[in-house]
Amino acid sequence: MRSPIDVDPEGRTSLAATAERAPAPWRRVLPWLSVGLAFAVVALVVAWALAPGLFTAQDPYTGVPADKLAPPSAAHWFGTDPTGRDLFTRVVYGARYSLLGGTVAVGVGLVAGTALGVIAGSIGGFLDELLMRVVDVLLSIPGLLLSLSVIILLGFGTTNAAIAVGVTSVAAFARLSRSEVVRVRRTEYVEAAFGSGGRWWSVLLRHVLPNSLTAVLALAALQFGTAVLAISTLGFLGYGAPPPTPEWGLLISEGRSHLATSWWLTTLPGLVVVVVVLSANRISGWISERREGAR
To answer: Averaged over 119-125, what is the pLDDT?
Structure first.
Protein backbone atom coordinates (compact mmCIF):
# COMPACT_ATOMS: atom_id res chain seq x y z
CA MET A 1 0.00 0.00 0.00
CA ARG A 2 1.47 3.33 -1.07
CA SER A 3 1.59 6.28 1.25
CA PRO A 4 0.15 9.66 0.17
CA ILE A 5 3.64 10.87 -0.67
CA ASP A 6 4.71 7.91 -2.80
CA VAL A 7 5.96 8.73 -6.27
CA ASP A 8 4.17 7.38 -9.33
CA PRO A 9 6.01 6.18 -12.48
CA GLU A 10 5.87 9.66 -13.99
CA GLY A 11 7.69 11.15 -11.02
CA ARG A 12 4.72 12.83 -9.34
CA THR A 13 3.52 12.11 -5.86
CA SER A 14 0.28 10.17 -5.63
CA LEU A 15 -1.23 13.06 -3.68
CA ALA A 16 -0.41 15.46 -6.51
CA ALA A 17 -1.71 13.02 -9.11
CA THR A 18 -5.00 12.66 -7.21
CA ALA A 19 -5.34 16.43 -6.94
CA GLU A 20 -4.73 16.74 -10.68
CA ARG A 21 -7.37 14.12 -11.49
CA ALA A 22 -9.98 15.80 -9.27
CA PRO A 23 -11.04 19.10 -10.86
CA ALA A 24 -10.91 22.07 -8.55
CA PRO A 25 -14.25 23.78 -7.85
CA TRP A 26 -13.15 26.93 -9.66
CA ARG A 27 -12.45 24.90 -12.79
CA ARG A 28 -16.08 23.82 -12.87
CA VAL A 29 -17.46 27.26 -12.06
CA LEU A 30 -15.18 29.38 -14.27
CA PRO A 31 -16.60 28.25 -17.66
CA TRP A 32 -20.16 29.00 -16.58
CA LEU A 33 -19.06 32.29 -15.07
CA SER A 34 -17.39 33.34 -18.30
CA VAL A 35 -20.45 32.38 -20.34
CA GLY A 36 -22.74 34.30 -17.99
CA LEU A 37 -20.47 37.33 -18.17
CA ALA A 38 -20.41 37.13 -21.98
CA PHE A 39 -24.21 37.04 -22.15
CA ALA A 40 -24.39 39.94 -19.68
CA VAL A 41 -22.04 42.05 -21.83
CA VAL A 42 -24.01 41.34 -25.00
CA ALA A 43 -27.31 42.04 -23.21
CA LEU A 44 -25.96 45.34 -21.90
CA VAL A 45 -24.78 46.46 -25.34
CA VAL A 46 -28.11 45.44 -26.87
CA ALA A 47 -29.86 47.52 -24.20
CA TRP A 48 -27.59 50.43 -25.15
CA ALA A 49 -28.70 50.08 -28.76
CA LEU A 50 -32.42 49.76 -27.98
CA ALA A 51 -32.79 52.33 -25.20
CA PRO A 52 -29.69 54.54 -24.91
CA GLY A 53 -31.64 57.18 -22.99
CA LEU A 54 -31.87 54.83 -20.00
CA PHE A 55 -28.08 54.89 -19.57
CA THR A 56 -27.25 58.53 -20.23
CA ALA A 57 -29.14 61.79 -20.28
CA GLN A 58 -26.61 63.74 -22.36
CA ASP A 59 -26.72 64.54 -26.05
CA PRO A 60 -24.26 62.55 -28.19
CA TYR A 61 -24.04 65.30 -30.82
CA THR A 62 -23.67 68.49 -28.77
CA GLY A 63 -21.12 69.25 -26.09
CA VAL A 64 -19.84 71.94 -23.78
CA PRO A 65 -16.70 73.57 -25.24
CA ALA A 66 -15.47 74.46 -21.76
CA ASP A 67 -15.31 70.73 -20.92
CA LYS A 68 -13.32 69.68 -23.98
CA LEU A 69 -10.74 66.89 -23.55
CA ALA A 70 -11.69 66.33 -19.90
CA PRO A 71 -10.27 63.05 -18.53
CA PRO A 72 -12.55 60.28 -17.21
CA SER A 73 -14.34 61.32 -14.03
CA ALA A 74 -17.59 60.82 -12.15
CA ALA A 75 -19.24 63.43 -14.38
CA HIS A 76 -17.84 61.97 -17.61
CA TRP A 77 -17.09 58.26 -17.25
CA PHE A 78 -15.16 58.04 -20.53
CA GLY A 79 -14.02 61.68 -20.58
CA THR A 80 -14.91 64.16 -23.29
CA ASP A 81 -13.80 64.73 -26.88
CA PRO A 82 -12.29 67.89 -28.46
CA THR A 83 -15.72 69.53 -28.75
CA GLY A 84 -16.77 68.76 -25.18
CA ARG A 85 -19.13 65.89 -26.01
CA ASP A 86 -19.44 63.13 -23.43
CA LEU A 87 -17.58 60.10 -24.82
CA PHE A 88 -19.55 57.54 -22.82
CA THR A 89 -22.77 58.93 -24.27
CA ARG A 90 -21.38 58.65 -27.77
CA VAL A 91 -20.26 55.07 -27.14
CA VAL A 92 -23.73 54.16 -25.83
CA TYR A 93 -25.50 55.70 -28.82
CA GLY A 94 -22.90 54.21 -31.15
CA ALA A 95 -23.92 50.70 -30.10
CA ARG A 96 -26.99 51.12 -32.28
CA TYR A 97 -24.92 51.56 -35.42
CA SER A 98 -22.32 48.91 -34.64
CA LEU A 99 -24.79 46.24 -33.54
CA LEU A 100 -27.15 46.98 -36.42
CA GLY A 101 -24.25 46.71 -38.81
CA GLY A 102 -23.11 43.44 -37.23
CA THR A 103 -26.63 42.02 -37.41
CA VAL A 104 -27.01 42.97 -41.08
CA ALA A 105 -23.61 41.49 -41.89
CA VAL A 106 -24.38 38.20 -40.14
CA GLY A 107 -27.83 38.10 -41.74
CA VAL A 108 -26.37 38.48 -45.24
CA GLY A 109 -23.77 35.79 -44.67
CA LEU A 110 -26.16 33.45 -42.85
CA VAL A 111 -28.96 33.58 -45.41
CA ALA A 112 -26.89 33.59 -48.59
CA GLY A 113 -24.15 31.26 -47.36
CA THR A 114 -26.49 28.74 -45.75
CA ALA A 115 -28.68 28.65 -48.84
CA LEU A 116 -25.66 27.94 -51.05
CA GLY A 117 -24.36 25.28 -48.67
CA VAL A 118 -27.71 23.53 -48.31
CA ILE A 119 -28.24 23.47 -52.08
CA ALA A 120 -24.73 22.15 -52.71
CA GLY A 121 -24.85 19.54 -49.95
CA SER A 122 -28.34 18.25 -50.66
CA ILE A 123 -28.21 18.12 -54.47
CA GLY A 124 -24.55 17.19 -54.95
CA GLY A 125 -23.05 16.36 -58.32
CA PHE A 126 -21.95 19.03 -60.76
CA LEU A 127 -23.85 21.80 -58.95
CA ASP A 128 -22.03 20.97 -55.72
CA GLU A 129 -18.66 21.16 -57.45
CA LEU A 130 -19.53 24.43 -59.16
CA LEU A 131 -20.76 26.16 -55.99
CA MET A 132 -17.80 24.96 -53.93
CA ARG A 133 -15.35 26.29 -56.50
CA VAL A 134 -17.07 29.68 -56.25
CA VAL A 135 -16.72 29.43 -52.48
CA ASP A 136 -13.03 28.61 -52.87
CA VAL A 137 -12.56 31.75 -54.96
CA LEU A 138 -14.26 33.87 -52.27
CA LEU A 139 -12.11 32.30 -49.57
CA SER A 140 -8.95 33.09 -51.53
CA ILE A 141 -9.67 36.85 -51.49
CA PRO A 142 -8.61 38.72 -48.32
CA GLY A 143 -11.67 39.80 -46.37
CA LEU A 144 -10.74 43.47 -46.10
CA LEU A 145 -9.97 43.71 -49.82
CA LEU A 146 -13.30 42.10 -50.70
CA SER A 147 -15.15 44.42 -48.31
CA LEU A 148 -13.50 47.50 -49.83
CA SER A 149 -14.39 46.30 -53.32
CA VAL A 150 -18.05 45.91 -52.39
CA ILE A 151 -18.11 49.31 -50.65
CA ILE A 152 -16.70 50.96 -53.77
CA LEU A 153 -19.63 49.49 -55.71
CA LEU A 154 -22.32 50.31 -53.13
CA GLY A 155 -20.99 53.54 -51.62
CA PHE A 156 -20.08 54.57 -48.10
CA GLY A 157 -22.27 54.22 -45.03
CA THR A 158 -22.91 51.83 -42.15
CA THR A 159 -25.46 49.71 -44.03
CA ASN A 160 -23.28 49.36 -47.12
CA ALA A 161 -20.29 48.53 -44.93
CA ALA A 162 -22.37 45.86 -43.18
CA ILE A 163 -23.42 44.34 -46.51
CA ALA A 164 -19.79 44.34 -47.62
CA VAL A 165 -18.71 42.55 -44.45
CA GLY A 166 -21.59 40.10 -44.87
CA VAL A 167 -20.42 39.22 -48.38
CA THR A 168 -17.02 38.22 -46.96
CA SER A 169 -18.70 35.71 -44.61
CA VAL A 170 -20.85 34.00 -47.26
CA ALA A 171 -18.10 31.51 -48.12
CA ALA A 172 -17.58 30.45 -44.49
CA PHE A 173 -21.30 29.85 -43.95
CA ALA A 174 -21.60 27.99 -47.25
CA ARG A 175 -18.67 25.68 -46.53
CA LEU A 176 -19.85 24.85 -43.01
CA SER A 177 -23.53 24.36 -43.88
CA ARG A 178 -22.63 22.13 -46.81
CA SER A 179 -20.43 19.90 -44.65
CA GLU A 180 -23.14 19.64 -42.00
CA VAL A 181 -25.83 18.77 -44.55
CA VAL A 182 -23.61 16.07 -46.07
CA ARG A 183 -22.92 14.65 -42.60
CA VAL A 184 -26.57 14.56 -41.60
CA ARG A 185 -27.67 13.07 -44.92
CA ARG A 186 -25.50 10.01 -44.23
CA THR A 187 -27.12 9.25 -40.87
CA GLU A 188 -29.37 6.24 -40.45
CA TYR A 189 -32.55 8.13 -39.57
CA VAL A 190 -32.34 10.22 -42.74
CA GLU A 191 -31.81 7.09 -44.83
CA ALA A 192 -34.79 5.54 -43.05
CA ALA A 193 -36.89 8.61 -43.81
CA PHE A 194 -36.07 8.30 -47.50
CA GLY A 195 -36.63 4.56 -47.38
CA SER A 196 -40.10 4.98 -45.89
CA GLY A 197 -41.20 7.09 -48.84
CA GLY A 198 -40.35 10.56 -47.56
CA ARG A 199 -40.11 13.23 -50.21
CA TRP A 200 -36.88 15.18 -50.70
CA TRP A 201 -38.22 18.53 -49.48
CA SER A 202 -39.99 17.07 -46.45
CA VAL A 203 -36.92 15.11 -45.32
CA LEU A 204 -34.73 18.15 -45.87
CA LEU A 205 -36.97 20.44 -43.80
CA ARG A 206 -37.91 17.97 -41.04
CA HIS A 207 -34.64 16.09 -40.52
CA VAL A 208 -31.64 17.52 -42.33
CA LEU A 209 -31.91 21.25 -41.62
CA PRO A 210 -32.84 21.10 -37.90
CA ASN A 211 -29.91 18.76 -37.20
CA SER A 212 -27.34 20.69 -39.22
CA LEU A 213 -27.97 24.29 -38.13
CA THR A 214 -26.43 24.16 -34.64
CA ALA A 215 -22.91 24.52 -35.99
CA VAL A 216 -24.13 27.31 -38.30
CA LEU A 217 -25.59 29.19 -35.33
CA ALA A 218 -22.28 28.87 -33.49
CA LEU A 219 -20.55 30.32 -36.55
CA ALA A 220 -23.14 33.12 -36.65
CA ALA A 221 -22.27 34.10 -33.07
CA LEU A 222 -18.58 34.04 -33.96
CA GLN A 223 -19.16 36.01 -37.15
CA PHE A 224 -21.16 38.61 -35.22
CA GLY A 225 -18.10 39.54 -33.20
CA THR A 226 -15.96 39.44 -36.32
CA ALA A 227 -18.48 41.64 -38.14
CA VAL A 228 -18.51 44.24 -35.36
CA LEU A 229 -14.72 44.33 -35.50
CA ALA A 230 -14.68 44.54 -39.31
CA ILE A 231 -17.29 47.32 -39.41
CA SER A 232 -15.32 49.23 -36.78
CA THR A 233 -12.22 48.78 -38.93
CA LEU A 234 -14.01 50.16 -41.99
CA GLY A 235 -15.33 53.04 -39.90
CA PHE A 236 -11.80 53.70 -38.66
CA LEU A 237 -10.59 53.87 -42.26
CA GLY A 238 -13.38 56.28 -43.19
CA TYR A 239 -15.58 53.90 -45.19
CA GLY A 240 -18.37 53.65 -42.63
CA ALA A 241 -20.73 56.20 -41.13
CA PRO A 242 -19.85 59.87 -41.73
CA PRO A 243 -19.10 62.30 -38.88
CA PRO A 244 -20.54 63.19 -36.42
CA THR A 245 -22.19 59.75 -36.23
CA PRO A 246 -21.09 58.08 -32.96
CA GLU A 247 -20.02 54.84 -34.62
CA TRP A 248 -17.37 52.94 -32.64
CA GLY A 249 -14.74 52.75 -35.37
CA LEU A 250 -15.21 56.41 -36.19
CA LEU A 251 -14.85 57.34 -32.51
CA ILE A 252 -11.51 55.55 -32.37
CA SER A 253 -10.40 57.24 -35.58
CA GLU A 254 -11.35 60.70 -34.34
CA GLY A 255 -9.17 60.28 -31.26
CA ARG A 256 -5.98 59.40 -33.15
CA SER A 257 -4.70 62.97 -33.32
CA HIS A 258 -5.02 63.32 -29.53
CA LEU A 259 -3.61 59.93 -28.61
CA ALA A 260 -0.49 61.33 -26.91
CA THR A 261 -2.40 63.68 -24.61
CA SER A 262 -5.94 62.23 -24.39
CA TRP A 263 -5.54 58.45 -24.34
CA TRP A 264 -9.18 57.82 -23.40
CA LEU A 265 -10.48 58.96 -26.79
CA THR A 266 -9.19 55.80 -28.47
CA THR A 267 -8.52 53.42 -25.60
CA LEU A 268 -11.97 53.29 -24.00
CA PRO A 269 -14.04 52.87 -27.20
CA GLY A 270 -11.46 50.34 -28.34
CA LEU A 271 -11.87 48.38 -25.11
CA VAL A 272 -15.64 48.33 -25.62
CA VAL A 273 -15.14 46.81 -29.08
CA VAL A 274 -12.69 44.23 -27.71
CA VAL A 275 -15.00 43.20 -24.87
CA VAL A 276 -17.99 42.83 -27.20
CA VAL A 277 -16.00 40.75 -29.70
CA LEU A 278 -14.57 38.50 -26.98
CA SER A 279 -18.06 38.02 -25.50
CA ALA A 280 -19.48 37.02 -28.87
CA ASN A 281 -16.60 34.58 -29.35
CA ARG A 282 -17.22 33.04 -25.92
CA ILE A 283 -20.91 32.58 -26.70
CA SER A 284 -19.95 30.92 -29.97
CA GLY A 285 -17.62 28.56 -28.09
CA TRP A 286 -20.38 27.75 -25.60
CA ILE A 287 -22.78 26.84 -28.42
CA SER A 288 -20.12 24.62 -29.97
CA GLU A 289 -19.48 22.92 -26.62
CA ARG A 290 -23.17 22.18 -26.17
CA ARG A 291 -23.31 20.82 -29.70
CA GLU A 292 -20.38 18.49 -29.09
CA GLY A 293 -21.90 17.36 -25.79
CA ALA A 294 -25.22 16.57 -27.43
CA ARG A 295 -23.63 14.19 -29.94
So the answer is: 81
Within 155-247, where are the H helices?
158-185, 188-195, 200-203, 214-237
Reported pTM: 0.78
- Asked if the bond preceding 244 is cis, omega within 30° of 0, the reply is yes
What b/e readout covers 51-77, taking b as 16+ CB neighbours within 10 angstroms?
ebeeebebebeebeeebeebebeeebb
Contact of 109 with 166, CB cutoff 8 Å: yes
Closest by CA position to 143, among listed 226, 220, 219: 226
Query: Residue 89 in contact with residue 59, Cβ under 8 Å?
Result: yes
Q: What is the pLDDT of residue 5?
A: 44
Percentage of the residues of the chain whose pLDDT score is greater than 90: 25
**For the segment 216-268, what is each residue's pLDDT rounded down to a tens digit?**
888 888 888 889 988 988 888 888 888 888 889 999 998 888 888 889 999 99
Task: Provide the pLDDT confidence category of residue 105 given band limits of 50, 70 and 90.
Answer: very high
Distances 242 to 203, 235, 271, 279 between C-alpha atoms, Å = 48, 8, 22, 27
Q: Which of 244, 220, 232, 234 is nearest to 273 (CA)?
A: 232
d(CA 88, CA 56) in angstroms, rounded, equals 8
